[in-house]
Every structure is written in C-alpha cells, then in structure tokens.
Amino acid sequence: MGSMYRASKTLKSSRRAFSVLSNSLKSNRRDPLCIGLYQAYGFSSDSRHSSKEPTIDLTQFPSEKIRNFSIIAHIDHGKSTLADRLMELTGTIKKGHGQPQYLDKLQVERERGITVKAQTATMFYENKVKDQEASGFLLNLIDTPGHVDFSYEVSRSLSACQGALLVVDAAQGVQAQTVANFYLAFESNLTIVPVINKIDQPTADPERVKAQLKSMFDLDTDDVLLVSAKTGLGLEHVLPAVIERIPPPPGISDSPLRMLLFDSFFNEYKGVICYVSVVDGMLTKGDKVSFAASGQSYEVLDVGIMHPELTSTGMLLTGQVGYIVTGMRTTKEARIGDTIYRTKTTVEPLPGFKPVRHMVFSGVYPADGSDFEALSHAIEKLTCNDASVSVAKETSTALGMGFRCGFLGLLHMDVFHQRLEQEYGTQVISTIPTVPYTFEYSDGTKLQVQNPAALPSTPKYRVTASWEPTVIATIILPSEYVGAVINLCSDRRGQQLEYTFIDAQRVFLKYQLPLREIVVDFYDELKSITSGYASFDYEDAEYQASDLVKVDILLNGQAVDALATIVHKQKAYRVGKELVEKLKNYIDRQMFEVMIQAAIGSKIIARDTISAMRKNVLAKCYGGDITRKKKLLEKQKEGKKRMKRVGSVDIPHEAFQQILKVS
Amino acid sequence: MLKTTISPIILSFAGKPKASRFIFQAFNKVVLQDTTPSARRNASTNLTTLHQGPPTSAYVHLPFCRKRCHYCDFPILALGTSSSSSNVYEEGKEDDPRITNYVDLLVREIKATRTDFDANPNLETVFFGGGTPSLVPPKLVSLVLETLTLNFGLTPDAEISMEMDPGTFDGQKLKELMDLGVNRVSLGVQAFQDELLKACGRAHGVSQVYEAIEFVKECGVENWSMDLISSLPHQTLDMWEESLRLAIQSKPNHVSVYDLQVEQGTKFGNLYTPGQSPLPSETQSAEFYKTASSMLRGAGYEHYEVSSYSKGDFKCKHNLIYWKNKPFYAFGLGSASYVGGLRFSRPRRLKEYTNYVADLENGAANWCGTGVVDLKDVATDIVMLSFRTSKGLDLKEFGEAFGSEVVKSICKVYEPYVESGHIVCLDDMRREVMSDEVNTLVASDEAKIENHVRYLRLKDPDGFLLSNELISLAFGVVAP
Ligand SMILES: Nc1nc2c(ncn2[C@@H]2O[C@H](COP(=O)(O)OP(=O)(O)OP(=O)(O)O)[C@@H](O)[C@H]2O)c(=O)[nH]1
Ligand SMILES: C[S@@+](CC[C@H](N)C(=O)[O-])C[C@H]1O[C@@H](n2cnc3c(N)ncnc32)[C@H](O)[C@@H]1O
Ligand SMILES: [Mg+2]
User: Fold this and answer.
1) pLDDT tens-digit series, residues A499-513
2) Number of domains into which chain B is organized
3) Per-residue pLDDT band at A302 (split at 50, 70, 90)
C-alpha cells in the first residue's frame, strides 16, 4: 500500500511537466525506438496501477536532472539513519512508518544493527534554487555498509555514482573506515560532500571534526554540513548540496545503450533481478540485451527503479539507476561488474570491478552428517544473493562431506552462517577459519593451501619456503593508547609503516601485518586495550615469506583433520597449548580417558587429558515406573546428536568453531 | 552415524485403548505380518508379544508415611508423628479415617478393574510399596489381599512383598501380616549412622533399625531385603563401608543399594547439587558404588541388577517382571501399570485419584491407559530394562523380534566399549566373546552376530556405573 501512495504522490508533480518534456524528447531524438516510449508510458507490472493511471514517468529526468550518490562512513556513524530521513523528506517512505534503518532488510542486518548489503533507493525531489523556478530531480541514493569486510560493496556502489556523502560522527570524529572510504571515493574521482552527523549528542564536537576533515582530507571547512539524522536538524541542506555540488551523470543519451551491472539478487517470484546503472543510451521493456562477459542475450521482461521497492517504469534513461528482469535463471549468469548493451550493437566494455579477494576460508559441514544435500541446496541458493562467497566441495574424515568456503572476513563468514540458518533452516558446523597459504617443496612444486588438512603433516619432500598473505592496516586511536597498540601490533608480527598525529589527541597508525594475525581476534583485542576508542581498517597487500608449520590436533592418538591449523613457527607452541586447553573445556568427559595432543609432524608440542566419566546411572528405578527414567535417556540420546564422533570421542558441534578464538 | 551402517526399527502399530481380547488379537496379527518367518514360529515367546498376555503381578501403593524423607519425591501422604501416643506402633490406627478411606478407594479400584483376557491366570507376585505399607493396619491389608484374590486369584506360593520402615512395626504386627500371606519384607534401613538418618529426615534411628531386624528374624521371615542409600550428604567412605558391613552381618538374603537421586522439589533438591559438598563428589560416589559391589559380592551376594543383590534363589520375583518387560497391574495413588503394552500412571493427588476411581466405576475412565503401542518404544524399553540386569540383552530374542540389522547396529556402536571393557559379550554358554572377535563379526557382511554373541551385558561395576550413557547410545540406533 505504501508504495502506491508514494507513486501517486510523485505523479502529482510529474504530470504537469510531462507534456513539455516528452515533446522535447520526441523532437530531439532520431532514434526510432522513441515511439516505443509512448507505448511504454503507462506501463506497470504492478496490477494495482491500472493502465489509465500512469505511474512514474522517467522521461522528464534527463541527465542534468539526475544525481547519483552513495552514503559512506565508518561503521555506525549513521548512514542508514540518514538514508531514512532523506527518503522521508522526499516522500519515498512515509514518516514514522516502517522500521528504522528501512533499507536494512535482511534479518541479520536487523538483528545486528548493521548494514551488510548496499541498497539503492530512487527518490524524487523538488528543488528550489534561489529565485529559479522549482524543478524536479531524480536522486539515486545508495546506502553502503560500514564494516571493513563489506568494503567491496562500497566500491561497487561508488561505480554507479558521481558523488558521495561522507558521514562522520560528530563525537567520534574521523575513524579508520572514514579514511578507507574517503580514499575509495576520492580515487574514483567522486565529488565528496562531507556531513557531520549526530550533532545532537552532548559529546558532539563538530569543530574538532571539521579540523580533522581539513587536515586529513583537505576538505574545506565551509563545505561541511552539520546534521542530526536523529532529530532532523540541518537536514534541509543535504539534498540541495547534493544537487548543487555533485555533477549529473556524464553519459551520452544518444549513444548506444551501455549499462553497468553492479549487483544482482534472486527473487522467488521474478527470478534474477539485476541492478544496473545506465551509462549511455536508454533501455525499454522488451529490448534485447547482451552481457559482455557471459556473452548471453536476454529479453528485458521488466525494468524499473527501486523506490525503494521494485517499481516498474518500462524504461531507464541515461544516468538512471534501476533494475531489470530477464529470463535469467541463476545469478551465476549475472557477473557483477559486467557491461550490458543492446544486442547486435558494439560498445566499449566498461572497466568493471576487480575480482573480490577471499581473506579467510573455512569448512562448512552439515551438523547432521546425512543432510549434505540440504546444505548443498541452501548454499547454492544463498550464493545467488551473496556472490562474494567462493564455494568448493571438500571431504573431511571427521565431518564427512561439506564445502570449503572463501569469505571476505570473519563478519562476512558469520553473516553467511547466520543467513544459512535463518533463511534456509540449515544447521552447520564450521571449521577453524584459515587464510590461504603457499608452500614450496624441495622438488620445486608449490602448493596453495586453503584447508590446513590438505597440507601433508609428514610430507614426502621437504618444505623449502612458505608464504602468507598480509594486509595494510589503518588504526586510529587516542594517543594515550599508542604504547599498548604498538605492543599488540608487534606481538602480531606487524611492521610499522606510518605514525602521525591527526590532531592533538588522535593518532593515525599504519602497519603491515600478516592477515592470519588480524583475522580472528585482533579487533577485539584492540578494542579491549583501548577501551573501545580505536578503529581499525585494512586492505589486502602482497604475500610475504614466513616460517609456517602445520599444527595437528590428535584425540587419543588420532589426528582430527577438521581441527588442524597452520601457524607461524614461533607461535606454534603457544597455539598448540591454547588449542588443547580450549578443546579440553569443550569436550565433555567420555566413558574413557581422552588424550588431547597438539603435534607438528610427529612431534608432540602440547598435551592434556580429560579423565573418564565416573558415574552416570539412575539406580532408583522404582515400582515399575520407568517413564521418567526413559525420558531422561531419550534426552541424553538427543544430546548425543549434537556431537560429532571422531574415532570414539564425541565432540560437540560448537567446539569446531569456538576453538577458533585462539590467536 | 552413517545411514548405511545403522538401521533403526521403523515398525509401529496402533492399538485400541482397552485391554480387550480384541486388541490382543489385533496386536498379534500385526506383529505376525511384520516379523520374519523365523520369528513367526516363536511368536508366542517373541519379545514384541510378551507384554500382551494377562499380567500375573500386581503393585499396590500404600502411601502413608509418618513424615516425608528429605530425598523423597514419591506420592505419599504424611500422617504426622503423633505425640499423644507413647507407642509408635499405633500410629497407623485401625480407625484412622485417612487410612480406612484410602483402602476403601483402593478396593474399589481393584474391583473396577475388569479384564477380558483369554486366560485368567492367578497372580504370582504382589508388591506392597509406599509410602510405608507397614503403617497400614493388618486388617486393612487383609482386605486388599482378599479383594485381589477375588478379582484375579492368587497362587498359593505367590511372592507377597511389603516395604517396612524401622519403627513402624513390632513382632506382633509382622506376625499378623505374615499370617495374611506376606512372605517377603523389604526393610528401609538406608544407613547405619544416626547422623545420616537424621540428615535424611528419617523418622527412626539406628536402634530402631536393630529392633526391626530382630522382629524380622524372630518372626522367621526367611525372605527379606534391606534398602541402603549411598552418596548421602556427609556420608564418607568409612561410613558407607560400615553400613555395608553391618548390613552383611544382619544376613538379609537380598540387598537393594540405591545411589541417592537428588530430585527436584525435594528438600535435598533445594539444598544440594550432585557432586558438590556436602554430597560426595562424582568420583567418591562412583567409589561407593564399586565398594558396594565388591563387598556384597565378596559376601556371597549376586549382583543381578544395577541396584539389587541377592543370595541364592532370593531374587525379587516381582522386580524381575519389570526387568523382563512383562505386564503388571498397579493399584493406588500414583502407581504405574503396564498392561497390553501401555504404560499408565494413576493420578498422584488424592483428590484426582478419588475422581479417577469413581470414573473407573461408572465407565468414564479406563484402567490401562490409552494410546498406541509403538514397537520402537517396546524395543527401547527392552534395551533399557535388559541392560539393568546382569543377564543383559538377549540378542537372539531381540533379533527375532526386531531384526538382525538392528542387532548389528547396536554391536557397532558398542564396539569401542567392548574394547574398553564397559560391555561384555557372551555366547550361548555365557562364555565371554573377545573384542577382536566382535570387531570381525561387526565388520563381516555375512555373519549374523547373534549366532555368535548371544548376550550383551554391562560390566559390573564399570559398565553399570555408566549405564545411562551406554543405554542412550543404544537408543540412538534403535530409535534414532
Ligand atoms: N544521537 C544520534 N544517534 C544517531 C544519529 N544518527 C544515527 N544514530 C544512531 O546511530 C546508530 C547507528 O546508526 P545506523 O544508521 O545504523 O549507522 P550505519 O552507519 O548505517 O551503520 P552500518 O551500516 O552498520 O555501518 C543507531 O543506533 C542510530 O539510531 C544522530 O543523528 N544522532
Ligand atoms: C518407596 S521408597 C520408601 C519405602 C519405605 N517408606 C522406606 O523408607 O523404606 C523405597 C526405597 O527407595 C529408596 N529411595 C527413595 N527415594 C530415593 C532417592 N531420592 N534416591 C535414592 N533412593 C531412594 C530408598 O532406599 C527406599 O527404601
Ligand atoms: Mg547502515
């Protein structure tokens, strides 16, 4: 119902302008397809909009009336909340209706209060510039995630934009992802509109933040907008600034159609939905289009905008951002970053995106070994909506058949597991995450390792060299914690690259660190030693030579492949000891003594034992009333289902993923 | 567990609620259809039909106690210790309306139990449990026995047991009870230390225990048993050894040793956590169990069930009915019966029990429960009950009833525990089959394991001590 209301509201303003615009369009164009426009006009796939009541008419928004921008910021600085306010202001969503952070639609996003997936919303806005007559603008807003794991979402979003609102929390100031995202936008030559948000907070210090923006990014203090997305203070200046400062999309309307495919997802009813940004030319429903990378051609069955729900418009014009539906069956056919063009024309492909790099790999196994098929199905479906996960089948002697999945980071991995459970009802066991390593043997062969189990514990040839991936990390923190943080970084084998003062109180540190050292608990540790005041971001860097060894975990002498891990030689003893300790806490007492050992090759580096269970008997079984006792045994039986039996030792599912919290 | 190696029992069939002749025939038919030809030949002795015949045992609940013990969660009615009377033996006075009214109800319940079996064999065992049945005046016990005899018949050599508390009977009362036919006494001693008895809230001390033992001997009760509880709060290994020694010295021909169960809602449940002081640690408690097993066996007792020890032929016949998954009647407050394959518990509250008896009389309630007999339940019952006994699970019988596949599956999950010595495998002659031989049998595709391994039993005491773990493992394959 809400979307209908919004659609007709925008119509009021657009109908007046229609005749003028369509006339001018008609005369401007030699394109014979122009006629198709009139047929397309009034089209709607939404049956609630009957044909006599035309819906949104995009023809009145030529490039100069379009602005495409992303909202970028450090995590939690208020991007999604600001997006809410802007959508309310433009009548795209109704004020007070729907949940806060409207665009965070996934259950994981709502539960965790973070944005995981970038979302686009098209808004219509009437702008009065001084004494000029008010005129209608079409604005495409893309709300992006703040967490470092999802920075590829930011890059993609920026490629469909000419400008970005760089949001900074008035109390927290510039943080690590502010820096990272600023550079992403800056390097893409986008116009940056700095916005200091949360000025309603008692601890807000906008002047200090302004100074930071000036010193770090050379942004003019006069250009900074001060707002509170919570109270609405200062909000009225945001969209006028967007219109005045951000240039319209540069595309050429009478060139052949060229579109960037910047996202896709699978919809139960419509099939694959492709999010596109029209760079040049125009697109109409019924057009035949080809995808450059895949070489496939399709008919456009539906085309429209995200308003913020999918709303058919029958067309998309130069500079506009919207969606198309084709007969495509799986999102695998829709390669993100691909160029879409009109079939039988030739165009220069757009630069596209650099491929995502998987930072961590982990095994995903069905909790109930027999449910492999169900897991396989769920993973296939979920990867349709999260193409950034890599998936390959693997087998573990301990856990049976499963998959090795590559993720962008641990949060991404967590979110993937949660979505598997929540959206597909599958219970999974995930194994200790690992980063990808390279090993070289004395016979000259090299081995890429994404699963420690795949690295032979006692290899035929000697390992002559090994390499591990590194990252360049940015840490911003109050100066009083610098000592502690430098200690942490050197403990994690980091190399300092930069140490500067942002202002009197804040320090900017840059380190090269092995990815392995930051992947698990680095951020938690950093937060705890800085009372939460440090922020952290990283980008991938090259591999470095490193002395790596495989640590096996043995239970009663039998190696458990799913528990093996690769570590730096210096840390092997510590990690081995910690793993043994952790496992001891997770494994319940068994009917016999369990010996836990950590080993490098055949050398035992740590050991402990879990003494045998002494007694579990219900001696009182009275008067033939066995029902209660039986219930107890049934419960015990059920409990055993939450265990994986390796050899004769029962390991609870949680153990496999929980013991990862070992540095 | 892999699907291919473990095969669960998938049979199940519906029965009608009433224990009429009709359903028993219906049960037979279904079972006959679902079992293999070899099983059909033995249908009359098949485990799946065992519970279908008419019961020859009855449990009778007499709920009165002087006061509730701190560990007790049984359905009881506390009478209160009378201070006016100097003679404690008069507590259950003949005209106490609480007792007479209850016995009246009980008699009505028995009478309202109309059976419709093909054959009507006499009762072979009767068990008066409690509560404290010895508080009930012999005259009233006599009334109950008469009613049972009238309704079901009673064989002349029936085992008639009664639970008795020290301090609630004297020689004369016991004599009267024996004259009525009571021929087995189960004496609730629990401990031989006054401080422990006190801590349990028992209404008697050690001196009454000795008196009671004297009465039993004086009256010439040949078949008597003593109950002891291990792992009581503040109990030490020395105390426990002392109790066992004194128990052995008093020469009962049966001893029941119960490991304390800390039940929710009891005084102990509110005060204590198992394994934590003042209760003994798990290790100590296991030590107590092992000590009982070795001392009693050393004194010539056979450890024939998790908590039961007997000399010679004096196993409790009534309890054996339970362990064999045979049917039995039950009468009285909160009691549980097993007839026609259905387990049924009567109301635990007096008011509801009173209504139940009235409903039974006017046909609104039924005395054996309603529901569906699920063969999986029968199988798990048999597994659970058999493993409590030293005889163990008869794989041949079990295989005939539920299929060889499931026998193999059980052996497969138990492989590591045969090796670790928690489970003992025995052949037809009850000679031990060694673990490597068992492994070979399990690995073989052809071998029918039950032809080589006839019985599986829990090792005494290590297997018994972990019986819950081991039995629930078998549950996992019998009824996943
Ligand atoms: N006081 C105050 N709180 C705000 C303001 N704007 C947002 N918040 C709060 O800040 C928290 C984070 O807001 P979000 O909009 O989810 O932040 P985000 O930047 O989208 O977060 P991610 O998508 O996870 O990076 C929420 O609790 C908001 O209610 C503001 O102007 N003032
Ligand atoms: C029905 S009870 C009591 C019978 C009788 N009133 C008496 O005290 O001897 C039968 C036996 O169960 C045992 N028992 C009762 N509650 C128990 C518990 N919570 N834990 C262990 N054994 C218990 C006691 O040994 C008791 O003798
Ligand atoms: Mg957000």
Assistant:
1) 999 988 899 999 999
2) 2
3) very high
- Ligand 1 centre from A249 Cα, in Å? 29
CATH number at residue A400: 3.30.70.870
DSSP at A427: -
Lowest mean pLDDT among A128-142, B6-20, B188-202: B6-20
Task: Give B348→chain A minimum CA distance, Å.
Answer: 13
Is B289 an 8 Å CB contact of chain A? yes
Question: Residue A553 burial by CB count (10 A; 0-12/13-18/19+): exposed, middle or buried?
Answer: buried
Q: What is the pLDDT of residues A310-357, one digit of tens each?
A: 999 999 999 999 999 998 888 888 888 999 999 999 999 998 888 888
Other beta carbons within 10 Å of A554: 18
Cα separations in angstroms, A87 against A73, A94, A129, B104:
18, 8, 20, 79
Instruction: Please check the confidence at residue A13 and state whether its pLDDT lies above 80.
Output: no
Q: Which two tokens stand for residue B429?
A: 């002659």
List the single range of A160-169, B1-10, B232-241 with lowest mean pLDDT. Answer: B1-10
A92-A98-A100-A103 Cα dihedral, nearest 10 degrees: -60
Does any CB of chain A come closer than 8 Å to the CB of residue B473? yes
Residue keyed to tokens 């970053």:
A337
* Residue at which a domain ends, from A417, A433, A449: A433
Query: DSSP character for B252?
Result: -
Report residues near ion ligand 3: CB below 5 Å: A 79-80, 115
Helix H or strand E segment including A142:
strand A135-143
Q: Which residues of B touch A633 (CB under 8 A)?
A: 380, 384, 468, 471-472, 475
pLDDT confidence tier of residue B84, bands split at 50, 70 and 90: very low
Residues spanned by the domain of A581: 549-659
Distances (CA, A) of B250 to A41, A536, B243, B245: 105, 77, 11, 9
Greater confidence (A201 vs A632) lies with A201
For residue B89, what pLDDT is reported?
52
Using CA atoms, how far apart are residues A93 and A115, in angstroms rounded to an integer?
Answer: 18
CA nearest neighbour of B323 among A36, A545, A621: A621
Structure tokens at B367: 């005395």
Distance CA A91, CA B479 (A): 60
Among candidate residues A381, A413, A433, the one where a domain is terminated: A433
Q: What is the pLDDT of residue B447?
A: 78
Mean pLDDT on B163-187: 97
Structure token digits, residue B304 = 């024939």
Three-state SS at B237: helix
**What mean pLDDT, rounded, does chain A reach?**
86
Nearest residue (CA) to ligand 2, atom 6: B132
Instruction: Inform me whether the C-beta atom of residue B347 falls under 8 Å from chain A C-beta atoms.
Output: no
Annotated binding site of A for GTP: 73-80, 143-147, 197-200
pTM of the predicted structure, to 2 decimals: 0.72
CATH number at residue A497: 3.30.70.240
Interface test with B, best of A617, A637, A648 (most B CBs within 10 A): A617
Q: Is the pLDDT of residue B362 over 90?
A: yes
Spatial CA neighbour of A34 closest among A22, A43, A16: A22
Q: Please tell me the total count of domains within chain A.
A: 4
Q: Are strands A594-600 and A548-555 parallel, antiparallel or unpaired?
A: antiparallel
- Tell me the C-alpha to C-alpha distance, in Å, between residue A551 and each of A94, A294, A462, B80, B195: 57, 42, 16, 67, 56
CB contact under 8 A, B466 and A623: no
**CB < 8 Å to B332, chain A:** none
A217 lies in the same domain as A168: yes
Best of B61, B74, B468 to disrupt the A interface (most A CBs within 10 Å) is B468
- CA–CA separation, A536 vs A530, rounded Å? 12
